[in-house]
Structures are given as structure tokens and as C-alpha cells.
Write a structure and sequence with these properties.
Shape: elongated
Radius of gyration: 38 Å
Strand order of the largest sheet: 12-11-21-20-19
Helix content: 25-40%
CATH topology of one domain: Beta-lactamase
Number of helices: 22
CATH class of one domain: Alpha Beta
CATH architecture of one domain: 3-Layer(aba) Sandwich
């Protein structure tokens, strides 16, 4: 067999050339592919590296909120009036919820655990979380048994988490409710308005808790923990400590507050044996020389814990339905015809304006007549010859008809001057007390009457103003504050509940005229309408008031007083809504309060009360 060696070499060369070409093509493809891979890697590492690092950091870090303790509120002797207690809450996190079609399992499981929560409320919380894309509170302050069940069912409840928080406890319950107010869970509006709030927070809704909410809140902290892919804890990465809220010291004397509330409660128990509607009333004790509020009672009251502690929240509906409106702060927001408690301030005005002198007298024969209209004294047959001191002591209406509107040729103050001086004593405007709401009272005028009723102002309207009837209205706090100005003699102090700066303004009444008014109020205790207080060991001065309500036979009972007489330190003001007569019904309650103060030797220094 002849083999052509040259042909073999040629064929081999041909195959070798083809292979080389294939190799070259493959090399080019590999080169392009590697370039793309390297380029993509560089892009991911250089251009998107920070993004991936952030995602990795998010995935491996878990933050837990450390709730900031709300500031403690103390009375004037540093007695704690509130407490913070631990709470475990249930929160929905929308980003971790399953798809909607898998939601029923969570609903059923939660409904089986939260047996006191209607299923529709659970559904509403989940829907709200999805809609707002924000963490949503499902249940606050759940029980220990519920916590254990939630922990046991954790894998079946994606998007449902336990969270720690603090809630308020109010040891003084009803007696301080209208001063302290209460806290309750944060609202959606508050979350939108304040970025530092979280869904497990509570905020002040009434009283001091609301007025000073921002100061009391503090700043939350957190702990950061590194976790692995399965969610198991590995390393504690650090803690940012929570900053507690600011503590507050009130001017309130807690023991005095509790004592006065007890007086109302005892009286109400006796009343309930006769009639079912509760006593409705106010008691206020002020420091004459600063405006500090030592006690402020509005009755009936409510338990602040009902709103702050979820275990009691089912009782809130009952509070809203109770007769007597216990949520209403009658001390600051109640506006009432003042009755004769207006007389000391109009007497001071008349003396200052020269309408009367300390020696001016009027003969009281039982009332006066203007045309067909009669304006009577409370005492049948009248009080006889009366000067300003006797007029205050015996509450002689005829004398104050003369002061206000004039009589027998004597010009009175007139409505404009009378209301001008009442404003000097703080009537017709908010006192400025540091509570969320306050009524301003009302001082009528001819312009107001014409606009409101279409009727002109008559002399009879001025006479009614002179004895605290007609359309004039005042709050118990206004009456107490104005009484403090008469007692102190020079300044009207702004009532306040937080120890600190003092705000005052001059009343611009000459001292000798203030003294005349004080003497008249002292006579009311020694020989007049409040003479049942003459036996007190502490000498006091006061003015009773019995204010008619519209055209009815019902009356409000007033008594406002100050003591000790020679060196005044405190004001005690009482209002009993539809409570009868000032001398019969309000004075005995004031007597109990003054005895409490006197027996404890608290009259020497106001800062000891």
C-alpha cells in the first residue's frame, strides 16, 4: 500500500488550521464574557455597594424601643401623685404581614387569643396598618397570660409583635382628677403632628397631664441587636438610653385635697338616701400672696385610672352617661350667677369712684320700686339704716341697688363703670390658670343686650348687676381669685398649679377703701350672714351669696372667704350648684375646711400648707 506522505501532511495541516480558527473564536467569546462579568462585578461593588451594604445592615440589625418614663408629678411636699407602671402592648407591623389572601389565618388565631377584643376590631387594626403603612396598636396592656399565648403562636402571627411601654396609675383617683387629668393612647392625629411619638405612647388628654404633656413625655431610647439569617440573637450592639420626662411639682396640698373631696363624698352619701341626683359643687383654696392653688375640687368627679389603664377602659362609657357630668370641671369652666359674692368688689369700686364714702347710709325698708317694678331685699321689712360695712355684713340689696344704679338722687356707678371695675378684679376674662380649658364668665352690656334681645338696657338691669343677678356670670375660680385680691389688698394674682414664677397686677383701689371692704366681710362672720363661723379659732372674713337660677325657685349657694383676718394667707371659696342658700349650705362646708387648716397650725406660713 502506497501512502502519499505529502497528502497526509497537507490533510493534517488543513485540520490543524480549522482547529486553530475554532480556538481563536472560543478565546474571543470567553474574553468578552469575562469582561462583562468583571464589569458587572465592578458596577455592583463600586456603584451599588452602599445600597447592598445598607440592605445587609438592615437585615442583620434589630432595634427594640426603650420607652421613656413619663415625668412624675408631685404635690407641694414632694408626695408622688402619679406612678408609671409597665405595659406590654400588641402592635401590627404592615411590612411583615402576609398577602391579603393569607390573612384569615392571622385573624382566626388572634381572635382565639384576644377573646375580649371583637374580631371586627382586629380586622380594622390590620386594615388600618395596611392602609396607612404605619405600625398600628392592636391592644394595649395585655395580660401576662395573653403575652405567653402570643409568644407561643409567634410563627403563626407574622406582622404581630409585642412591645413594651409605660402607663399611668393615679393613686388619688377621683380626688385629683380635675387637676391631674389623665393620659390615654396616642391618637392618629397626634402621631401625624409629633414625629417623636410612637403607636405605643400615651399622651395627656386633660388637666396638668395635657397642659405639660410635652415636658412630661421625655425621649425614647433603643437597643440594637445583631441577628443571623434565622433571626436568632447573636450580639448586643449597644443601647441609646431613654431620657425621662421632666418631673413637676404642683402647688396642691394632697392631704387637704383628699380631705375636701371626702367632705363632698360624705355629703353626697347622705343626699343619696333622699334623692338620686348627686351633689354638684366646687371648693377652692388659694394662697393669697401668690395665687398658688392649694386645693381645687369639682364634684362629682371621675377616676383618672379609667382612661389611663386599659383594664378599666370599659367603664368610660358609664362616666359619660353619669348624672352630674363628672368630666366637667365646674371650678374653671362652670359659669354661674354670682349672687351677693359680687358685692365686695362693687363696694370697693364705689368707694374708689367717690360714689359713696365709708359713712354713706341708705335706709333699707324691704326694697325699692321703679315704676311698676319692685326690687326687694331678702329680709322682710328691710335692714334699717345701712352703711357699706353693714351692707356687706348683712348682704343688704338696697344699698347695692344704689351703688350700681343710683337711688334718690344719688348717682350710681352705672353699668360701664361697674363692669370696668369687675374686670379689674379679673371678672369677664380667663384667670390664666395652667389647665387646658377655662371659661371667661360674662359681663353684660347695653350693646350686648340690644344685639342679643333687641331690647334696650333698663335701670333694672343695672340693679340686677349690682346684686350678682341677671346676666352676669362668673366662674368659682374667678370669685376665689378676686377675693384673694381683696384679702391681699394690692394685687390680683394669677392662679397657678405649678410652682414657679408668680404673675400679678395691681387692682388700683386705695388701701383704706380695701380695708373698709375687709371690715364689712369680717362683720359678716361676727354678726352677719356667716356668723356660724365666729367660733373658729382662726379669725376669718367672708361673703355669702344665694344666686337665683333664671325664673326658677332653685338657687346656687356661694361662700367666699379669707383668713387669718389680720394677716390673710388663704382664700376658701365654695359653690354648691342648685345647692340652696349660701349661709345655710355653703358656710358649713367652708367651716370644715377652715377648721382643718387651723388645727394643723398652718396659718403661720403659707408654704407650710
Amino acid at each position: 500500500m502506497n501512502i502519499d506522505l505529502s497528502e497526509l501532511i497537507e490533510q493534517q495541516g488543513s485540520r490543524t488550521g480549522q482547529g486553530q480558527r475554532r480556538l481563536n473564536i472560543l478565546s474571543i467569546v470567553l474574553c468578552v464574557t469575562m469582561t462583562a462579568i468583571v464589569g458587572r462585578g465592578a458596577y455592583l461593588q463600586v456603584l451599588q455597594g452602599s445600597s447592598f451594604r445598607a440592605r445587609a445592615e438592615h437585615n442583620r440589625l434589630e432595634s427594640t424601643l426603650v420607652p421613656a418614663p413619663r415625668g412624675i408629678i408631685y404635690d407641694m411636699h414632694h408626695l408622688a401623685l402619679v406612678e408609671n407602671i409597665s405595659s406590654t402592648d400588641l402592635v401590627i407591623t404592615p411590612s411583615e404581614l402576609p398577602l391579603r389572601e393569607h390573612e384569615d389565618g392571622i385573624l382566626d388565631r388572634l381572635a382565639g387569643i384576644l377573646t375580649d377584643t371583637p374580631p371586627e376590631e382586629i380586622q380594622a387594626a390590620i386594615t388600618k396598618a395596611r392602609t396607612t403603612r404605619q405600625n398600628t396598636l392592636l391592644s394595649k396592656a395585655i395580660s401576662h397570660d395573653t403575652v405567653l399565648e402570643i409568644e407561643k403562636a409567634e410563627r403563626e402571627l407574622p406582622g404581630v409583635h409585642l412591645a413594651s411601654s409605660l402607663v399611668r396609675k393615679y393613686p388619688y383617683a377621683e380626688s385629683l382628677a380635675h387637676v391631674l387629668g389623665y393620659t390615654s393612647p396616642v391618637t392618629a392625629e397626634e402621631l401625624d403632628e409629633h414625629t417623636t411619638l410612637v403607636v405605643t405612647d400615651t399622651t395627656g388628654k386633660q388637666g396638668i397631664e395635657k397642659t405639660y404633656d410635652t415636658s412630661l413625655r421625655g425621649q425614647h431610647g433603643f437597643t440594637s441587636t445583631e441577628v443571623n439569617a434565622s433571626g436568632n440573637q447573636k450580639t448586643d450592639l449597644g443601647t441609646k438610653a431613654a431620657v425621662p420626662g421632666e418631673d413637676l411639682t404642683l402647688t396642691i396640698h394632697a392631704d387637704l385635697q383628699k380631705f375636701i373631696y371626702g367632705l363632698f363624698s360624705e355629703a353626697n352619701e347622705k343626699r343619696n338616701k333622699i334623692r338620686k341626683d348627686p351633689i354638684k359643687g366646687v371648693a377652692i383654696v388659694l394662697d393669697v400672696n401668690s395665687g398658688a392653688v392649694r386645693s381645687l375640687i369639682s364634684y362629682p368627679s371621675y377616676d383618672s385610672n379609667t382612661f389611663s389603664q386599659p383594664s378599666l377602659r370599659s367603664q368610660t362609657a358609664k362616666i359619660f352617661q353619669e348624672v352630674g357630668n363628672p368630666l366637667f370641671n365646674r371650678a374653671t369652666d362652670g359659669m354661674y350667677p354670682s349672687g351677693s359674692t359680687i358685692k365686695p368688689f362693687l363696694a370697693a369700686a364705689a368707694l374708689q369712684e367717690g360714689v359713696i364714702t365709708p359713712q354713706t347710709t341708705v335706709r333699707s325698708t324691704g326694697g325699692i320700686k321703679v315704676g311698676p317694678w319692685s326690687f326687694g331685699d331678702w329680709k322682710t321689712g328691710g335692714h334699717g339704716v345701712t352703711d357699706v360695712r353693714k351692707a356687706l355684713a348683712e348682704s343688704v340689696n338696697t344699698f347695692f341697688y344704689m351703688i350700681a344704679g343710683g337711688l334718690d338722687g344719688t348717682a350710681g356707678l352705672g353699668v360701664d363703670k361697674a363692669t370696668q371695675y369687675l374686670r379689674t378684679f379679673g371678672w369677664g376674662a380667663n384667670t390664666g390658670i395652667d389647665l387646658p380649658s377655662e371659661a371667661s364668665g360674662f359681663l353684660p352690656s347695653p350693646q350686648w343686650k340690644l344685639k342679643a334681645t333687641g331690647q334696650p338696657w333698663y335701670i333694672g338691669d343695672t340693679y340686677h348687676l349690682g346684686i350678682g343677678q341677671g346676666d352676669v356670670l362668673a366662674t368659682p375660680l374667678q370669685v376665689a381669685s378676686a377675693t384673694g385680691a381683696i384679702a391681699q389688698g394690692e394685687y390680683l394674682y394669677q392662679p397657678h398649679l405649678i410652682e414657679g414664677s408668680i404673675t400679678k397686677r395691681k387692682i388700683s383701689i386705695r388701701p383704706e377703701y380695701v380695708r373698709v371692704v375687709q371690715e364689712g366681710m369680717r362683720l359678716a362672720v361676727n354678726d352677719g350672714s356667716a356668723r356660724s363661723l365666729a367660733t373658729l379659732s382662726m379669725p376669718i372674713a367672708g361673703k355669702t351669696g344665694t344666686a337665683q337660677i333664671g325664673g326658677t325657685e332653685k338657687t346656687h349657694a356661694w361662700f367666699t372667704s379669707f383668713g387669718p383676718y389680720e394677716k390673710p394667707e388663704y382664700v376658701v371659696t365654695i359653690l354648691l350648684e342648685e345647692g340652696g342658700a349660701g349661709d345655710v349650705d355653703a358656710v358649713p362646708l367652708a367651716k370644715e375646711i377652715w377648721q382643718w387648716i387651723a388645727e394643723r397650725g398652718l396659718s403661720a406660713q403659707s408654704d407650710k400648707l
